[in-house]
Amino acid sequence: MTLAPFNPTPRTLMGPGPSDVHPQVLQALGKPTIGHLDPQFVAMMDEVKALIQYAFQTENPFTIAVSAPGSAGMETCFVNLVEPGEKVIVCRNGVFGERMRQNVVRVGGEAVMVDDEWGTPVSVDKVAQALADHPDAKFLAFVHAETSTGALSDAKALCALAQQHEVLSIVDAVTSLGGNELRVDEWGIDAIYSGSQKCLSCVPGLSPVSFSAKAVAKLEARTTPVPSWFLDQTLVMGYWGGGKRSYHHTAPVNSLYALHESLRLLQQEGLENAWARHRAMHEKLKAGLEKLGLSFVVDEASRLPQLNAVYIPEGADDGAVRSALLERFNLEIGAGLGDLAGKAWRIGLMGYAAREENVVLCLAALDEVLN
Ligand code: PLP
To answer: Is the residue at 230 inside a domain?
Structure first.
C-alpha cells in the first residue's frame, strides 16, 4: 500500500484547545533533533524552567514541564502529594473538577466535594465552610479556569483560605496560564499544572508544573512510594533538577524547543499585555456575538475571556453549524461538553488565536452559517 504524506488543511482553531500555534513555534519544532543530554539541550532546558517560572510568576525551584499533556500534570500533583486515606476538598463546577475527584479516589484519598452549578465560579463561601467542617483535610483542589463552561474562579481568595486553614492548594491552570492573571507565589499556590496547547500558543503534549517548598516537603515526607513510576517527581528531579542531569526518560526534544519558543514569545509580549490582549479580543467577540443574538452561559463577572461559552440558538443544528464552519471556513469552534453537550458552543480565544483577524473571521462565518 502506498500512502501519501499526511497534509492537514490549515485551520483556524477557536475551540477549547488545541488553539492556533504561533508560526515561530511551528518553526522551532522543525529544528534538528539533538540528544536530550546534549549540553546545548540541557542549557535550553534551564531557560525553559526560568520561562515557566516567569509564566507562573514563581521562584519555586521545583518547576518543570511534564513530558505529557495537561492530564498528566493533573495526575502528577495528585499521585505525588496525596497519600492513601488523606482528605482532599475538591471543588466541582464542571468536567475538570470531576476529574480531580477521580484522581483523588484513584490514589486512595478521600474526596470531600464542594459542588457549584455549571457555568458559575467555585463558591468561596462554600469552600470556607467545607474547610471549617473538615479540619483534618490536607488539600484544597480546584480548577482556576473551567474549560467546560467558561467560568473563572477566584484563585487568590481560594488559596488564601487554604493558607488560613493550613492545607495545601492544588490548582488547575490548564486554560488560565497566559490568559488570566495568575500569581503563584503572591497567591501562595502550592501545586499547579497547566498545558502547552491553550493560551501559550504551543503544540499539545507538555504540562508545566510547579510545587512550592511546602509541597516538596510533603512529597519528601511520604511514607508510601509514589504509585506511578513515570510521574514520580522524586525520580524526575534527577533530570530536571539542578546539577547533574541523569537519564529518566527520553525528553520530547522538539516539543520542548516549541515550548521554549512559545514561552519566549510570551515573555517578549509581557504577561500583563497577554492578559489584556485576551480581554480586548473577548470584548470584540462578545459585542459581535450579542449582535448575532447569542447569549453567554456565564455571567459577565466570572466569564473567561479565552473561552466563550454561548447557548446554541433555537432552530440551529449543533453539528451542522460546526461542520459548515469547518468545511466552508476552515474554522473550528468547540462543542459543548458534559452537561452543556448539545446546548452550547465553546469559542476559544486562546494564545495566538486571540487576534483581531480571528474574531472577524469567526463573527462573519457564524453570520453566514446561521442566517
Ligand atoms: N484541565 C482543564 C481545565 C482542561 O481544560 C484540560 C483540557 O482541556 C485538562 C485539564 C486536560 O488537559 P489535556 O487535554 O492536555 O490532557
So the answer is: yes
Ligand 1 binding pocket mutation candidate from 95, 172, 174 (most atoms within 8 A of CB):
174
74 C-beta closer than 6 A to ligand 1: yes
101 and 61 both lie in a single domain: yes
pTM more than 0.90 = yes
Considering 239, 267, 295, which residue would you say is the last residue of a domain?
Answer: 267
Name which of 298, 276, 287, 300 is nearest 359 in CA terms.
Answer: 287
DSSP state, 207? Answer: E
Distance 288 CA to ligand 1 centre (A): 28
Range of the domain at 74: 23-267
Q: Which three cell numbers stand for residue 369?
A: 452559517
146 CA from centroid of ligand 1 (Å): 9
ipTM of the complex: 0.99
pLDDT in tens, 37-95: 999 999 999 999 999 999 999 999 999 999 999 999 999 999 999 999 999 999 999 99
CATH of the domain at 358: 3.90.1150.10
Q: Give yes or no for residue 76 CB within 6 A of ligand 1.
A: no
- Nearest CA to 47 among 252, 227, 247, 264? 264
Residue nearest to atom 4 of ligand 1 (CA): 174
Residues 54 and 188 in one domain: yes
Q: What is the CATH number of the domain that holds 46?
A: 3.40.640.10
Whether residue 5 is contained in a domain is answered as no
Cα 13–Cα 99–Cα 118 angle in degrees, nearest 5: 70
State if residue 94 touches ligand 1 by the CB under 6 angstroms criterion: no
Q: Is the Cβ atom of 174 under 6 angstroms away from ligand 1?
A: yes
Q: Is the Cα dihedral 298, 92, 219, 194 positive or negative?
A: negative
Last residue of a domain, one of 267, 297, 328: 267
- Together in a domain, 200 and 121: yes
- Residue 4 falls within a domain, yes or no? no
Ligand 1 pocket, residue 69 CB under 6 Å: yes
Whether 71 is in the pocket of ligand 1, judged by its Cβ within 6 Å, is: yes
* Number of domains forming the structure of the chain: 2
Written as one string, the DSSP assignment of 136-167 is: T--EEEEESEETTTTEEP-HHHHHHHHHHTT-
